[in-house]
Automatic annotation (TrEMBL):
Keywords: Flavoprotein, FMN. Signal peptide: none annotated. The keyword Flavoprotein applies. Its cofactor is FMN. Coiled coil: none annotated. InterPro entries: Flavin_Rdtase-like_dom, Split_barrel_FMN-bd. Residues 25-178 form the Flavin reductase like domain. Belongs to the flavoredoxin family. GO terms for molecular function: FMN binding; oxidoreductase activity, acting on the CH-NH group of donors, NAD or NADP as acceptor. This is Flavin reductase like domain-containing protein. Gene3D superfamilies: Electron Transport, Fmn-binding Protein, Chain A.
Length: 201
């Protein structure tokens, strides 16, 4: 393909929904932050977010981009993080894609998505939200900063603890990504991430 074969699109000419669709199809694959929070009333909440990345390695920080409800209300995850200052990012194994999808639906703030998806809530060490027992890697986080540069709320959390299942560690104590079986988000679906080995010369 040559540059002359490409379609030029100015996002100012598009609706927000069309722009969102282009972003979802362009930025792929996206890792899934299966995010657990707890309300001030003690209700567990679990939801997946694919607008997610690392912000800093020292101190370790991650970022979630959280949409609002159509009427402007914050999603339960955002409200809980704002109220408690804590959350846990759990990696989502591809074998649990159905459960991830189930927890993506819009439930009321009094609904425990762990129970709905038949997942195991495991107490964290340093924060109040539970970890997902079925997740091979979990990051306990404390809220560092919230920003709103555009339509979404950006939540930056400092990772205060890692939990890593022993079966995903290699002989050198490093995480073997293939063993975590990471689930990724594409434009509007899920995909597995398979490592590619580049031959040495």
């Amino acid at each position: 393909m040559h540059a002359t074969d490409q379609l030029f699109v100015d996002p100012r000419d598009l609706s927000p929904a069309k722009t969102f669709g282009l972003l979802k199809a362009s930025v792929v694959p996206r890792p899934i932050a299966w995010t657990s929070t707890r309300s001030v009333d003690g209700v567990n909440n679990l939801a997946p977010f694919s607008f997610f990345t690392v912000v800093s390695s020292s101190p370790p920080m991650v970022l979630l981009s959280l949409e609002f409800h159509p009427d402007g209300r914050p999603k339960d995850s955002a409200a809980n993080i704002e109220a408690t200052g804590e959350f846990v990012v759990n990696t989502a194994p591809a074998s649990y894609a159905a459960a991830v999808d189930h927890t993506s639906h819009d439930f009321g703030p009094d609904v425990d998505e762990f129970a709905l998806a038949r997942l195991t809530p495991v107490p964290s060490r340093l924060v109040r939200p539970c970890r997902v027992g079925e997740s091979p890697v979990s990051l306990e986080c404390r809220l560092h900063t919230t920003l709103r540069p555009g339509s979404d709320r950006l939540v930056i959390g400092e990772v205060v603890a890692f939990h890593i299942a022993s079966h995903v560690l290699d002989a050198n104590g490093r995480i073997d990504v293939a063993q975590t079986d990471p689930l990724a988000r594409t434009a509007a679906g899920f995909a597995r991430i398979d490592p590619i080995t580049i031959p040495t010369r």
